[in-house]
Amino acid sequence: MTNKSATHDGLCAAPDCSDCDAFLGTRYGTVSANRADIFYRECGAPDAPAILLLHGYPSSSRMFEPLFPLLNGRFRLIAPDYPGFGMSSAPSPDQFEYSFDNLAATMLAFTDALDLREYALYVQDYGGPIGMRLAMAQPDKVKALVVQNAVVHEEGLSPAWAKRRAFWADRAAHEADLVAGLTSVAAGMARHIGGRDHPQRYDPDLWMDEIKQLQRPGQAAIQMALAYDYRRNLDSYPRWQAWLRDRQLPTLVTWGRHDPIFTVEGAWAFRRELPSAEVHILDAGHFALNDLAMEIANCMCNFLSPVMPNGSAAERLLQGARPS
């Protein structure tokens, strides 16, 4: 498998995805799962190999829009919003447990509601700990893993996590500072731009829309509950690592090197458990799809096509064959 180091800008040598033109446009839906109303975006043929896309903080399924036109000729893409995010319902913490265990349980119920019998997982940020729980709960359904700036190793946590660790140690003393940072324009810009030297290339709506979401009533309580529960993910890292080592799930890692939150060391660490993991270090930030959607789509096409062959009616039409 091809592996790109930081010195090569992570550009994937891949065939043009021009044959991945839209077979079906994006569809939108809402289903009930674990006592929450889960909004989702979907594209691609219903019988194409499925990829479940799990978003990060403080984003939503909208972050995957750049991938949809690039991959929906070969795959069925399904991107849900977690409870409390995007267009999904946001019950208060006294009505819904905002923990990573419960978000994973909700996504498990979501896959059941859509009758997903096998799929690849694409995980970013919060999608990492949610996706690991999901994969371990459904090992026979999850056929491959695509990791994009999501950690399961402590060395992947940058020095920026010092404030979060202080919050975990003394929630009462540090919660007000963390709440104030939720709607910080500077923090929002840093998540998207990182240390890049061309901020003029980034649409401010990327972070301003997130800030508007975080300003909605009840959001502070929801996000603080999840921020505090995140500490349990670190406790789970050894268990997740052992599962990956035992399972040897086919894994593609695409990682934006300019991420101020998760370090490049977190990308290479996957090789300890998964020596055959395909790793690409990209000239991108935390939300790498903002920068290099085509490169990531090409990597995914190359990596997933042999793992999840496409025998859908859509693919046969694209290849000029007559549907059976």
UniProtKB/TrEMBL annotation:
One of its GO terms (molecular function) is epoxide hydrolase activity. Pfam families: Abhydrolase_1. This is Alpha/beta fold hydrolase. Residues 49-289 form the AB hydrolase-1 domain. The lineage of its organism: Bacteria, Pseudomonadati, Pseudomonadota, Betaproteobacteria, Burkholderiales. PANTHER family: BLR6576 PROTEIN (PTHR42977:SF1), HYDROLASE-RELATED (PTHR42977). SUPFAM superfamilies: alpha/beta-Hydrolases (SSF53474). Keywords: Hydrolase. It comes from the Bacteria.
